[in-house]
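#structure-requests
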Amino acid sequence: MLHSHLTTLNAVSLILNLFQEEGCEAMTLLDGSGIGPADLGHSDARITTQQELQVCANAVARREEIGLELGRRMHVSCYGMLGYALLSSATLGDALRLALQYPALLGTVFTLRLVDDGRRVWLSASDYRDAPALASFNSEFCMVSLKVICDDLLGRTLPLLGARFEHSRPGYHRLYAGAFECPLAFEAEDSAFAFERRWLDTPLPLADPITHKAMSERCRQLNLEFTGRQAWLGRIRQLLLQQLDAAPGLEGLARQMNCSSRTLRRHLQALGCSYQQLLDQVRFERAKQLLADEHMPIYRIAECLGFSETASFRHAFQRWSGVAPSHFRG
């Protein structure tokens, strides 16, 4: 996904903490993501959704049902300023409509909608366009976390009338009962859960109009900053993708971005990365696409990615993914 958006380290931190609690080696879950231990210490660090998905893929390889557990840990307090804005909203409906205004702050990889059929309201997640192998994981993670947000906002469990999922029924489907005490359906047109319409008008116990106004304005400002960074990052990644066989370097990229190298370096630092880390991310994503073509020799892939020697590419790919290119190709 070469159009990666930005997100926070919340989900990555939750994954690492979960495996650490179980006594497992957690830091290897960062393999291939470009995220280092030092990044975890920055509360305001931003990563791309592609980096997040790599950590998720590593986690799913160990436990395929991990999305359900992670979703249960994504409380409203995980969303920073947006979380405060939601908690201080007047009603559940106000809070959900506010959340849907700021998908970048919510960190979702879906299009979220409230679908009102007159009696029931469906909170729907659709239009997933990321890694197909992680579709079930992301759907479970998204829907459980949204249910947890609703429960947190109300201060009680939101009774559900039904839940449905785009993916086929997994072998561990009985675990869904921990989050969805309602009839379940699979292979649906979207992923969603339903509740009685009246809940939208339910006053929230922590509602505060003054706090809500201040937090909503802060969310608006953060969203402008966040989406601006996303567009800026997308342009950089596209420029790098177009010239991987002869990367421009920091100075050359700065000229193409119509800024100084100092300004470019500062912006990248604000995103929690460097020019080399970003170049490596784009190279890694492109390398995985090229390796899918079994007829393309590895030396040609190395050339396409700008490596002067095949051995250098092999070493880099080993560092990015934890396996050699030939093993990745399988």
